[in-house]
Amino acid sequence: MREFDVAVVGSGYVGLVTGACLAYIGHRVTCVDKNERRVADLQRGKMPIYEPGLEEMVARGRSAGQLRFTADLPGCAREAEVVFIAVDTPPGEDGSADLSNVAAVARSIGRALSEAGERERPLIVVNKSTVPVGSGDYVSMLVREGAEEAGNGSVDFRVVSNPEFLREGSAVYDSLFPDRIVLGAESREALDTMRELYEPIIEQSFPAEMDPRPKAAVPFVTTDLASAEMIKYAANAFLATKISFINEIANICELVGADVSSVAYGIGLDGRIGPRFLSAGIGWGGSCFPKDVSALRSIAREYDYEPLLLDAAVCVNERQRKQVISKLQRELHTLKGKRVALLGLTFKPNTDDLREAPSLEIARTLSSLGARVVGYDPVAAKEAARLQPELKAAFDPYEALRGAHAAVVVTEWEEVRSLDPARAASLMEEPRVLVDGRNALDPERCRRGGLLYRGFGRA
Ligand SMILES: NC(=O)c1ccc[n+]([C@@H]2O[C@H](COP(=O)([O-])OP(=O)(O)OC[C@H]3O[C@@H](n4cnc5c(N)ncnc54)[C@H](O)[C@@H]3O)[C@@H](O)[C@H]2O)c1
Ligand SMILES: O=c1ccn([C@@H]2O[C@H](COP(=O)(O)OP(=O)(O)O[C@H]3O[C@H](CO)[C@@H](O)[C@H](O)[C@H]3O)[C@@H](O)[C@H]2O)c(=O)[nH]1
């Protein structure tokens, strides 16, 4: 295997995990970020995010001398063979992706290339951020513009799209054991180089200590730039739609007296459907699905196309969150003066990410209706209370439940799944409602413990 000099720009969820994993498989990696405090923290081993297994991977990379951190993007771009762009592409006001961070990095790479003069091989600029179709060409244009600004526009580089499919909470595992690696480029040579860089992952030839089960080679999908960019949006839109689909079925199950968990199991056994992403409940949130579905809708509208199915997926998702409120109103009648405990606040378990977390919107609505809201989360209670001041932070689930008239399971952390219903009921006030927004608890056990259990799509 050839050892590459790699720069990864953006030390957030994707950048850090990518950098740490590339160092783990034997490359020399420099992670770059414009946030100097973040860089200083990383240089002394302090993680800016909560992601299981990441701290150990970073420590390992640093002590092997394979991983370092800097704020000096031009310096890195001059020395690297491959630069990954992994900066955030947040939603703009109209729902389209805001590419200003990607653009700033591309220009800066251009300037650095121009100042460095001739290179032995073209620099490969890999876009890992989720970006609209056409962004590969836009990045090329900006690199060239940056180079022209610095006095020499004839710089040698190739742009590659390499969408990222990791999930927060299992990001390290997903990066080392991906379902596929997708690469889009116009240059065969650039694709061959990327294959070489990823070879230990494609061949699964790195030490098997993380997961000793034998693995087949990872499919390596090569395509043009636009299709690679579209694969990312299509994958997220499909998964989000799949969840909205099961939520629609859950709502009908409630009306007809069926149980959505059994229905999901029954349909998921069909190989054409598959069992994953069929958990009904509050619906999807997070830093990706809402932003990417909205960016895809916005792309479609740019071309005067009405994305009816995507619009419906979003509507169903918005309605699911509102259902938490109607389920509470049905049991508590007025919410004024009632204490409601939210159990789990991050958008999913095993992450500290609160971007588009349903908990924040639910807390806001409940407090606008006069309820007192307290929220428990094992890692993000303090930050959630900062973002949503109506929410009082609790650091233990039972502390949150003390004196509560109702509780809502918003995020199925293990600490929430393993809740003791009898202990919860003993701390709560009448009518002791538990709205299980993730269908994570056993309804019978909850009822035996003295809770008024209400799930999604089941009795
Ligand atoms: N979070 C995920 O699970 C996930 C998964 C797949 C793809 N993605 C995509 O990957 C991209 C990154 O997402 P993320 O969640 O890692 O973002 P993030 O917000 O966690 O991190 C982004 C980092 O980039 C840095 N940055 C921004 N502009 C910069 C610049 N000009 N120069 C240097 N550093 C800069 C920020 O300081 C920050 O540390 C997004 O496009 C996202 O859609 C995210
Ligand atoms: O059956 C399910 C599965 C998930 N969710 C919710 O869907 C959201 C997203 O979950 P998940 O996909 O596990 O987390 P992310 O980390 O947001 O990962 C998604 O978004 C990433 C960013 O683009 C992609 O890289 C991943 O492949 C894609 O799964 C969360 O709010 C979950 O609670 C459900 O409601 N029901």
UniProtKB/TrEMBL annotation:
<feature type="active site" description="Nucleophile">
    <location>
        <position position="288"/>
    </location>
</feature>
<feature type="binding site">
    <location>
        <position position="130"/>
    </location>
    <ligand>
        <name>NAD(+)</name>
    </ligand>
</feature>
<dbReference type="Pfam" id="PF03720">
    <property type="entry name" value="UDPG_MGDP_dh_C"/>
</dbReference>
<feature type="binding site">
    <location>
        <position position="348"/>
    </location>
    <ligand>
        <name>substrate</name>
    </ligand>
</feature>
<dbReference type="InterPro" id="IPR014026">
    <property type="entry name" value="UDP-Glc/GDP-Man_DH_dimer"/>
</dbReference>
<feature type="binding site">
    <location>
        <position position="33"/>
    </location>
    <ligand>
        <name>NAD(+)</name>
    </ligand>
</feature>
<protein>
    <recommendedName>
        <fullName>UDP-glucose 6-dehydrogenase</fullName>
        <ecNumber>1.1.1.22</ecNumber>
    </recommendedName>
</protein>
<keyword id="KW-0520">NAD</keyword>
<feature type="binding site">
    <location>
        <position position="168"/>
    </location>
    <ligand>
        <name>NAD(+)</name>
    </ligand>
</feature>
<comment type="pathway">
    <text>Nucleotide-sugar biosynthesis; UDP-alpha-D-glucuronate biosynthesis; UDP-alpha-D-glucuronate from UDP-alpha-D-glucose: step 1/1.</text>
</comment>
<dbReference type="InterPro" id="IPR014027">
    <property type="entry name" value="UDP-Glc/GDP-Man_DH_C"/>
</dbReference>
<dbReference type="GO" id="GO:0003979">
    <property type="term" value="F:UDP-glucose 6-dehydrogenase activity"/>
</dbReference>
<dbReference type="InterPro" id="IPR036291">
    <property type="entry name" value="NAD(P)-bd_dom_sf"/>
</dbReference>
<dbReference type="InterPro" id="IPR036220">
    <property type="entry name" value="UDP-Glc/GDP-Man_DH_C_sf"/>
</dbReference>
<dbReference type="InterPro" id="IPR017476">
    <property type="entry name" value="UDP-Glc/GDP-Man"/>
</dbReference>
<dbReference type="GO" id="GO:0006065">
    <property type="term" value="P:UDP-glucuronate biosynthetic process"/>
</dbReference>
<dbReference type="Pfam" id="PF03721">
    <property type="entry name" value="UDPG_MGDP_dh_N"/>
</dbReference>
<dbReference type="InterPro" id="IPR001732">
    <property type="entry name" value="UDP-Glc/GDP-Man_DH_N"/>
</dbReference>
<feature type="binding site">
    <location>
        <position position="291"/>
    </location>
    <ligand>
        <name>NAD(+)</name>
    </ligand>
</feature>
<dbReference type="InterPro" id="IPR008927">
    <property type="entry name" value="6-PGluconate_DH-like_C_sf"/>
</dbReference>
<dbReference type="InterPro" id="IPR028357">
    <property type="entry name" value="UDPglc_DH_bac"/>
</dbReference>
<keyword id="KW-0560">Oxidoreductase</keyword>
<feature type="binding site">
    <location>
        <begin position="165"/>
        <end position="168"/>
    </location>
    <ligand>
        <name>substrate</name>
    </ligand>
</feature>
<feature type="binding site">
    <location>
        <begin position="277"/>
        <end position="281"/>
    </location>
    <ligand>
        <name>substrate</name>
    </ligand>
</feature>
<feature type="binding site">
    <location>
        <position position="232"/>
    </location>
    <ligand>
        <name>substrate</name>
    </ligand>
</feature>
<feature type="domain" description="UDP-glucose/GDP-mannose dehydrogenase C-terminal">
    <location>
        <begin position="341"/>
        <end position="443"/>
    </location>
</feature>
<feature type="binding site">
    <location>
        <position position="38"/>
    </location>
    <ligand>
        <name>NAD(+)</name>
    </ligand>
</feature>
<feature type="binding site">
    <location>
        <position position="89"/>
    </location>
    <ligand>
        <name>NAD(+)</name>
    </ligand>
</feature>
<dbReference type="GO" id="GO:0051287">
    <property type="term" value="F:NAD binding"/>
</dbReference>
<dbReference type="GO" id="GO:0000271">
    <property type="term" value="P:polysaccharide biosynthetic process"/>
</dbReference>
<dbReference type="Pfam" id="PF00984">
    <property type="entry name" value="UDPG_MGDP_dh"/>
</dbReference>
<feature type="binding site">
    <location>
        <position position="285"/>
    </location>
    <ligand>
        <name>substrate</name>
    </ligand>
</feature>
<feature type="binding site">
    <location>
        <position position="355"/>
    </location>
    <ligand>
        <name>NAD(+)</name>
    </ligand>
</feature>
<comment type="similarity">
    <text>Belongs to the UDP-glucose/GDP-mannose dehydrogenase family.</text>
</comment>
